[in-house]
């Protein structure tokens, strides 16, 4: 799992893996910056952690290679990016092709990018939501695996709306990862089928 911030989505998966019959184990948690709450949560759960900072590498290509190797060392079946605020590089996506999942706090294809909640609020939508999708080479453009709507309420701030979305995101991510682990999926063009 890859994180950059508070890691509340990571915590939801950590909690789920502690329930009987949950079909997934977490191999490791990686970050692009040190000393974040997400890493502390992972350490608290006894999970291996690693940090691969862009600034420690001469360029993006070298960072991409280092991140790919750091993740590959844990031999994951699936890589989950949950609040990881860097665009994954071509080497990484080539190595884990079709096996990288991202969660985004909006109903894609509306409001891609790093400011999805603020953008939705500014636009004035009455409904936004959460999207879990496979990662391709674009920014939040990969095939959609799961989506759930969340209402925008009068007086919402970016924080209040984001927190309502994250409540849904946590459940959607946990459910989607479990379904993928149990059933697998086939991807035909943009269509993702979980049997
Ligand atoms: C989530 O809304 C995720 O979709 C977005 O960043 C947030 C991560 O939250 N990209 P947390 O760090 O897991 O609390």
UniProtKB/TrEMBL annotation:
SUPFAM superfamilies from the UniProt entry: Formyltransferase
Keyword Transferase appears in the UniProt entry: yes
Keywords: Purine biosynthesis, Transferase
Domain Formyl transferase N-terminal per the UniProt entry, residue ranges: 2-177
Top EC class for this record: transferase
Gene3D superfamilies: Formyl transferase, N-terminal domain (3.40.50.170)
Active site (UniProt): 104 (proton donor)
Site (Raises pKa of active site His): 140
Metabolic or biological pathway, per its Swiss-Prot or TrEMBL entry: Purine metabolism; IMP biosynthesis via de novo pathway; N(2)-formyl-N(1)-(5-phospho-D-ribosyl)glycinamide from N(1)-(5-phospho-D-ribosyl)glycinamide (10-formyl THF route): step 1/1
Binding positions for (6R)-10-formyltetrahydrofolate per the UniProt entry: 60, 85-88, 102
Magnesium listed as a keyword: no
Catalytic reaction annotation: N(1)-(5-phospho-beta-D-ribosyl)glycinamide + (6R)-10-formyltetrahydrofolate = N(2)-formyl-N(1)-(5-phospho-beta-D-ribosyl)glycinamide + (6S)-5,6,7,8-tetrahydrofolate + H(+)
Alphabetical list of HAMAP family matching this protein: PurN
Protein family according to the UniProt entry: Belongs to the GART family.
NCBIfam families: PurN (TIGR00639)
Protein name (database record): Phosphoribosylglycinamide formyltransferase
Organism in which the protein naturally occurs: Actinoalloteichus caeruleus DSM 43889
Gene behind this protein: purN
